[in-house]
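[worker-b] picked up task from shared queue
[worker-b] task type: protein-ligand structure
[worker-b] ligand name resolved to zinc ion; SMILES cross-checked against name lookup, match
[worker-b] sequence length check passed
[worker-b] input payload:
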Amino acid sequence: MLNKEQIKMYYEKDYMSLRSIAKIFNTDHHTISRTLKSMNVEIVNQCDRYKLIGNTKICFKCKTKYDNAKEHFKKDPSKRDGLYPSCKECNKKDWKDNYPNIAERHRARTSKYAKNNPEIVNNYRTKYYQDNKEDLKAKSKQWRIDNPEKRKISHSLSKAKRRALLKGVRNTLTAEQIREQYSEQTGECVYCYVDVGNDYHVDHIIPIINGGENTKDNIVIACPRCNLSKGVKTVEEFKIVGIRGI
Ligand SMILES: [Zn+2]
Ligand SMILES: [Zn+2]
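[worker-b] inference finished, payload out:
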C-alpha cells in the first residue's frame, strides 16, 4: 500500500522527481503520478520547478526556496529564466569543494596538449622567454633569495635526476621525499650527527654511478664534509675507510 501523504511530502516539500519517489516505493513513476493527481497535486515538469516564477526560485542543489531570487542567484543569460540553476551559497560551496580538481584537470589538459604539440609549445615558450627575458630573470633571482630552502632542494634534485637519467636507473625521488628524509633525520648528518641546517647534501647510499637508484630508500642527508669525503663509496665501504676519510 502506498503512503499517499508521504508521496505528497516528497514531491511538494523535498522537490523529489517522480522517478526518485517511485524508486523509494519500489514502483514506477506512472503510479506515483496517478497517486498525486488523485490528491489534486499539480504535476510540474522537473525543469520548470527550478525556474524563476514571479520572484521565487528553488535552488536545484539545496532545494531551498528563495522569495527574493535575484539576490540569491547569479545572472546567467544563457538560461531561459536568466538565472543560474543553483544558489550563490551552493556555488560558493561547490567552488571550494571542486577547486583542486579543476586545477588538476587544467594541468592535465595542458600537459596533454604539450605532449601532442611539442613544436607549437616549444616555439611559444622560446618566444615567451625571449620577450620577457629580463622580467623572468629578475623574478627567478628574487625567488631564489626568498626561498633558499626550496632552491636548495630543487638544485639537489635536478642534479640527481640528471645523473640518474644518464645512468638509466629508477628515478622517482621528489622534493617532498627529500624533505621527509630531512625531518626523519631531524636535520642531522647521517654520518657525523652534526646539525646540517640549510647546508646539506642529498647522499645516495649506493652511488648512482655504481647503479644506485634515485629513490627515497636510497638517499640520506649528509653534511657536505662527510658527503664529499665519502665520494662514490657505499655507506659500508665508507664506514670501513672511516668517517671523514681519516
Ligand atoms: Zn542552493
Ligand atoms: Zn657529516
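[worker-b] attaching auto-annotations
[worker-b] Residues 59, 61-62, 64, 86-87, 89-90 surround zinc ion (ligand 1) (CB under 6 Å).
[worker-b] releasing lock
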